[in-house]
Amino acid sequence: MTVVRTERLVLRRWREEDIAPMAAINADPEVMRWIGDGSVRDAGSTRAGIGAMERDWETDGFGLFAVELGDTGELAGFTGLAVPRFLPEVLPAVEVGWRLGRPFQGRGLATEAARAALRFGFERCGLRRIVSIAQVGNDASERVMAKLGMRPVLETVDPGCGRPVRVHEVTPAGAVLHAPA
Fold first, then answer.
1. What is the mean pLDDT of each run of 10 residues along the chain (181 residues)?
2. How far is CA 160 from the centre of its chain?
3. What are the structural domains, with CATH classification, of the chain?
4. Which among 118, 150, 163, 173 counts the fewest CB atoms within 10 Å?
5. CA distance 49 to 70
């Protein structure tokens, strides 16, 4: 079982008991505002999404981790690596992404989790380039990308929802894999 630990977080594979808290995160319109067309997701689609995340681990050798707080075990959301099939023009590529519930936002947890996912991708999976994709206007995600050492390389449109997106990328040489002192 793949587990990555950071100062405050545990990144791990998904469990059945993660479905309800992740469904609550996915049902929050503010959390989902910058995801696809902004639609919320119910428990059934969350279950299916978690199933797809787990299948990605089996087929790709990497995937999206459940993110829990190390001190409480509470599920905060997810981070990790995925192939961004929704945006074919950037393929072949691997994307680092994250989604945290509102109580966990604004505390540096997304940066900490995504930094660990980048380290995993570069050091354990041997990736040479990782992208991240944010809808234009999602300033919070773009701030995380900047903290990771990512730089914008392309603006385009998500064909699934018609919203403009900005693609960022980083290589191992440019990545900020450890928190600044």
1. 94 97 98 97 97 96 97 98 97 98 97 97 96 98 97 97 98 89 62
2. 18
3. 3-170 (3.40.630.30)
4. 173
5. 24
